[in-house]
UniProtKB/TrEMBL annotation:
It is a multi-pass membrane protein. The lineage of its organism: Eukaryota, Viridiplantae, Streptophyta, Embryophyta, Tracheophyta. GO terms for cellular component: membrane. It comes from Eruca vesicaria subsp. sativa (Garden rocket). Belongs to the ADIPOR family. Residues 1-22 have a biased composition (Basic and acidic residues). This is Heptahelical transmembrane protein 4. The chain crosses the membrane at residues 79-99, 192-214, 226-244, 256-277, 289-309, 315-336.
Length: 385
């Protein structure tokens, strides 16, 4: 067949073939333009109709290739995709930062503040031998440390110029980071990583959902389930750092709260994923599960405040947790009321509609929770049990 076509093509005058080809390409392009044009709300199939105040700029039942490319074009889901995609990369960066930097960076101020107290409890002979064993003599970094220690000699700083002050600062920081692990045993990080993982899963699932849902009814159905599962995972894993680090010295309450939220989280994910629970009569069950999960966070936080009312870290973290609650609450309010597009339908199709505001508030709430997590880590690294 290929050979025959080639002979036919050869028999035809060259200019005519080129013209035909150009015509075909033009036609194809025009057809694609018409086919993949953004449509208005009233032209959507029923399963894609969700917000009647967003009037236009919808993608409707496009092939996957066009949908994937649409991540770089303007339509009413562009910012919904990007707000959570950027959020995902933010949490990926925070996870890498936490894994590489947080355990080795000790706050000098709090170290100095607590050192005398800790030293009283520490076996100084053991500390001395530990410290000496941590100063090997052959690696290049040792030279650095030895040089810094040498620079520590008082006569080098007697003039007190700014370069010396810089070196002094660096020496102090290096020494602090060297001595700190000998005195303070960093506590386990898994509850914090569980939260970071939950946040990344939620943000990526949501972003994917907004990008792909317009493909077909089947894909839309699957994506929406995935989005629900992501939200359940974020809520459940958000409990892990506050509960674990607040009650790590009290295994009964630690296991009680962690067990409760894990069972509730798994139940919510399953309810979100199983088709049998999708029928309207389960709508109330689904909604109650999400609300129940969110509100059950108040119990361990109040409990923490009662036990540690005199600890500044308990108040500090509660401040962050209240701020997170406000951000999520405001997000839910905006989401439910469809403000501002309900006031000016069609004016916020591309930018500024409620779902985009909701996305930004979710990322801000999760980031607040991350900050609270850092306070917990520092608190427990220094205090232990
Ligand atoms: Zn969303």
């Amino acid at each position: 067949m290929g050979g025959e076509a080639e002979i036919k093509e050869r028999l035809q005058p060259k200019s005519e073939t080129t013209e035909k080809k150009q015509h075909n390409v033009k036609g194809k392009k025009l057809w694609q333009k018409v086919k993949y044009q953004l449509v208005e709300y009233h032209a959507l199939p029923a399963y894609l109709r969700d917000n009647e105040y967003i009037l236009g700029h919808y993608r409707s039942e496009w092939p996957i290739k066009q949908i994937l490319l649409s991540i770089f074009t303007i339509h009413n889901e562009t910012l919904n995709v990007w707000t959570h995609l950027i959020g995902f990369f933010l949490f990926l960066a925070l996870t890498i930062y936490t894994a590489t930097k947080v355990p080795s960076v000790v706050d000098l101020h709090s170290l100095q503040h607590r050192l005398p107290d800790v030293l009283r409890k520490t076996d100084l002979h053991k500390l001395h031998s530990d410290l000496m064993s941590r100063l090997p003599s052959s690696t290049p970094s040792t030279w650095h440390v030895m040089e810094l220690l040498y620079n520590c000699l008082p006569e080098r700083f007697s003039h007190g110029n700014s370069t010396d002050m810089c070196v002094l600062h660096s020496v102090r920081e290096d020494l602090a980071n060297m001595i700190a692990p000998l005195i303070f045993r960093p506590i386990t990080r898994w509850p914090f990583y569980a939260f970071l993982g939950g946040a990344m899963f939620c943000l990526l699932a949501s972003s994917t959902c907004h990008l792909l849902s317009c493909h077909s009814e089947r894909v839309s159905y699957i994506m929406l389930r995935l989005d629900y599962a992501g939200i359940a995972a974020l809520i459940a894993t958000s409990f892990y750092p506050p509960v674990y680090y607040s009650f790590m010295c009290d295994p009964f309450f630690c296991n009680l709260y962690l067990g409760f939220i894990t069972v509730l989280g798994i139940a919510t994910v399953l309810v979100s994923l199983l088709p049998v629970f999708q029928s309207p009569e389960f709508r109330v069950v689904r909604a109650s599960l999400f609300f129940g999960m969110g509100f059950s966070g108040a119990a361990p936080i109040l409990h923490k405040l009662i036990i540690f009312w005199d600890q500044p870290e308990a108040l500090h973290t509660t401040g962050y947790e209240v701020l997170m609650g406000l951000l999520y609450g405001l997000g839910a309010l905006v989401y439910a009321t469809r403000i501002p597009e309900r006031w000016m339908p069609g004016k916020f199709d591309i930018a500024g509609h409620s779902h985009q505001l909701f996305h930004v508030l979710v990322v801000a709430g999760a980031f607040t929770h991350y900050r609270a997590g850092l306070v917990y880590l520092k608190w427990r690294d220094i205090e232990g049990c």
